[in-house]
Amino acid sequence: METIVFSGGLGNQLFQYAFYLAKKKTSSNVHINIYSIQRERLHNGFELEKLFGIQADDASLLVRIIRKLLIFKKKKYFRAIASVLLEFVVKLIGINVIREKGYSTYNPEYLRAQKGLVFYFGFWQSPWYFDSFREEIRKTFSFDKSLLSDKSKILSEEIGSKNSVSVHIRRGDFLSKSIDNAVCDEKYYSQAMERMKSDIENPYFVFFSDDPEWVKANLALPNAVYVDWNQGADAWQDMYLMSQCRHNIIANSTFSWWGAWLNENVGKTVIAPVKFMKQAETPDIYPLNWIRL
Fold it and tell me: Against a cut of 0.85, is the pTM above it?
């Protein structure tokens, strides 16, 4: 049995489920269970169930123990010793723990069927895991429009009638030193918007951010829209609205990555930051036709 362990916010959960679907195609004789290691503690919990009807079991005691093992490996002294002991016990009972190596690096070996009890820990942030069945992914991640707020419904109609460009600015947790992502600076957004203005006729900019007041103060544009009403459990509506825009400027965030990827406009322009993580290379994070600045 192969088990995909879920963690992170909505963007990461979408990558993990897409990887799960890829595993199902290449491991037809292997049953795959999905355990979520968090329901409510991080971001907005496990969101795939309420948004797409995708169910996941809560983390078993075994999954929790293995996760502790992986965390303790990074610690010193007695925690490192505890990790060694835990690892010995896990191997002794015949469990194979596969932890993703690198960041956003496509490795087809992970899709190969494994025998025995196997647990996968990682984010699998690369479109190459599911590019061959992208339409199935888009259908699976189809948002229920009836769940939209009245404001979001009105904006959805408006951006569908114009040369709309979503602009995602993520600050919030990225300002923390513990997060391995640097906030995209004003220079990146200025260059990206100038590129859109030169390539697209009458671009209509729609800003999305977890810090809308900062955006209004630092990236003010006439006739732009600043979406500031989708907070907390309603944040997914921002991803949906991004996907409805004709073009996208994303942050180094899997949230807006999916907003752009789910955009079905065949002539779309997507601009992305060349550096997705501040201290690591992410060679396979972007589709080839996205522009990197």
Answer: yes
